[in-house]
Design goal:
GO molecular function, one term: alanine-tRNA ligase activity
Number of helices: 18
Keywords: Aminoacyl-tRNA synthetase, ATP-binding, Coiled coil, Cytoplasm, Ligase, Metal-binding, Nucleotide-binding, Protein biosynthesis, RNA-binding, tRNA-binding, Zinc
Distance between the termini: 45 Å
Number of domains: 2
CATH topology of the largest domain: BirA Bifunctional Protein, domain 2
EC number: 6.1.1.7
Bound molecules: adenosine-5'-triphosphate, magnesium ion
Protein name: Alanine--tRNA ligase
Subcellular location: Cytoplasm
CATH architecture of the largest domain: 2-Layer Sandwich
Length: about 475
């Protein structure tokens, strides 16, 4: 079953259960000071849970574009090294706003996975919130009983607050969750160690696929839990992980969500995926990062030097450097993946398809600009590496700052290269240098007051679609960054 069919079947299944199917919210969030990017399906429904507004329907389902590269959920360091965390991924979800609760949510999840998708029952595990005595939080007996009707007790695991209790913030709606995990190892491996022992243990083939959150409490400022007047369900399933399970693969990158991107890049580099660890990591990183970059730009966030724009620029430069060092790409290459991506998401995320040429152009310009300094920066790093590798093994903050300031190396890129070479970077000293520069430019700005008309940075411009701004000064301003 290809991934398009999987996504469609998920949505059709919940439509048959009377859910309204809604579009994904944009990846970039403009009106929430606590969050830069959408990192879960529920983000766009936050106000429904807080009671600030009412949903169009009590049952909703969708596929949500998510990005986990900053804040509480930051998976960037895992990407490419492991085979199941991405920067950008789709979260399939179904919601009940004061309508059905645990019974239906659990039964439907089980029905979808085992009947509709035919996943092997004996390889699925459920986790249940085991309670927390210190915090006076009860075990989720109701979920436990429901799972016991479905699977033998030896496949049910108890989780702690970190994995199995969801809270929106210090106060507000919260509740226990039940996660579904799948064991994709061979029978021989399973015979050696039971899958149950590997759940939530970072095993690449025993992975979490679906999280079912049951919002039943309101956390008060004094820390106590009050029963919510209406109970809600919020679920999130990793689409690429689901595809891995259904397509009987052991890596998300072996599913048809990623193979077209990997194959295109490997062909271009004249290498083969699966032959060499370093090349493989680079191919995974590139096929992951291009999705994050392309979708964020399509949703209105251009790469820039601050806030959300800088997050995208950092991801893009990270991808460029992986290609440069490990695949010998000395010219822009990421932008060439746009037609491959657009074809994959045709009919799913039209915003990418309709803007593919513009997005490719932005990416190409970003790549060219970084490639102009990348080589010099890498040479500089090589010299420093030779100096410190037999002494302190620490790269001076001043050097990291020079790499940032003169060669456009984001701090995390310098740190990544350092790590690859068994070194680290003095981050505190880097931050000090950064502060010195900020103070300096503040002074400069103060003295030149009156000579300049303040121009709003592109980040502060409200995004109305590229057609609205394409030909204006804002885009040419962006080119000069
Ligand atoms: P994990 O423990 O694997 O990091 P999580 O508990 O942080 O996952 P949730 O916040 O519960 O994830 O999100 C719901 C679902 O989204 C997960 O069950 C998983 O299938 C998927 N998911 C989470 N993070 C990622 C990611 N970085 N890349 C791909 N899928 C993800
Ligand atoms: Mg996580
Ligand atoms: Mg988890
Ligand atoms: Mg989870």
């Amino acid at each position: 079953m290809d991934s398009k069919e999987i996504r469609k079947r998920f949505l059709d299944f919940f439509e048959r259960k009377q859910h309204e199917i809604v579009p994904s919210a944009p990846l970039v969030i403009h009106n929430d000071p606590t969050l830069m990017f959408t990192n879960a399906g529920m983000n766009q429904f936050k106000d429904y849970f807080l009671g600030n507004s009412d949903p169009s329907s009590k049952r909703i389902a969708d596929t949500q574009k998510c990005l986990r590269v900053s804040g509480k959920h930051n998976d960037l360091e895992e990407v490419g090294l492991d085979t199941y965390h991405h920067t950008m991924f789709e979260m399939l979800g179904n919601w009940s706003f004061g309508d059905y609760f645990k019974k239906e949510a659990i039964q439907w999840a089980w029905e979808l996975l085992t009947v509709e998708f035919g996943l092997p029952k004996d390889r699925l595990y459920a986790s249940v919130f085991g309670g927390d005595e210190e915090d006076n939080m009860p075990l989720d007996q109701e979920a436990l009983d429901l799972w016991k009707d479905i699977m033998p007790e030896e496949r049910i695991v108890f989780g702690n607050k970190k994995d199995n209790f969801w809270e929106m913030g210090d106060t507000g709606p919260c509740g226990p969750c039940s996660e579904i995990h799948i064991d994709l190892r061979s029978d021989a491996e399973v015979a050696k160690i039971p899958g149950k022992d590997l759940v939530n243990n970072d095993h690449p083939q025993v992975v979490e696929i679906w999280n079912l959150v049951f919002m039943q409490f309101n956390r008060l400022a004094n820390g106590s839990l009050q029963k919510l007047p209406a109970q809600h369900v919020d679920t999130g399933m990793g689409f690429e992980r689901l595809a891995m399970a259904i397509q009987k693969k052991t890596s998300n990158y072996d599913t048809d969500v990623f193979t077209p991107l990997i194959n295109f890049t490997a062909d271009k580099a004249k290498v083969q995926y699966g032959q060499d660890e370093k090349t493989d990591i680079a191919l995974r990183v590139i096929s992951d990062h291009i999705r994050a970059i392309a979708f964020t730009i399509a949703d209105g966030q251009l790469p820039s030097n601050n806030k959300a724009g800088y997050v995208i620029r950092r991801i893009l430069r990270r991808a460029v450097r992986y290609g440069y060092t490990f695949l010998n790409f000395k010219e822009p290459f990421l932008y060439e993946l746009l037609p491959v991506l657009a074809q994959q998401f045709d009919g799913v995320f039209p915003e990418l398809v309709s803007q593919q040429d513009f997005v490719a152009k932005v990416i190409r310009e970003e790549e060219s600009s970084f490639l102009r300094t990348l080589d010099k920066g890498l040479t500089k790093l090589e010299v420093i590496k030779n100096q410190v590798e037999n002494t302190t093994k620490v790269i001076d903050g001043k050097v990291a700052f020079e790499l940032y300031d003169t060669y456009g190396f984001p701090f995390d890129l310098t740190s990544l290269i350092a790590r690859e070479n068994g070194l680290s970077v003095d981050e505190a000293a880097f931050k000090e240098e950064m502060q010195v520069q900020k103070n300096r430019s503040k002074q400069d700005a103060a003295t030149s007051k009156g000579d300049w008309i303040e121009v709003k940075a592109i980040d502060e411009v409200v995004f109305l679609g590229y057609d609205a701004v394409k030909s204006t000064a804002q885009i040419s301003k962006y080119r000069e960054v």
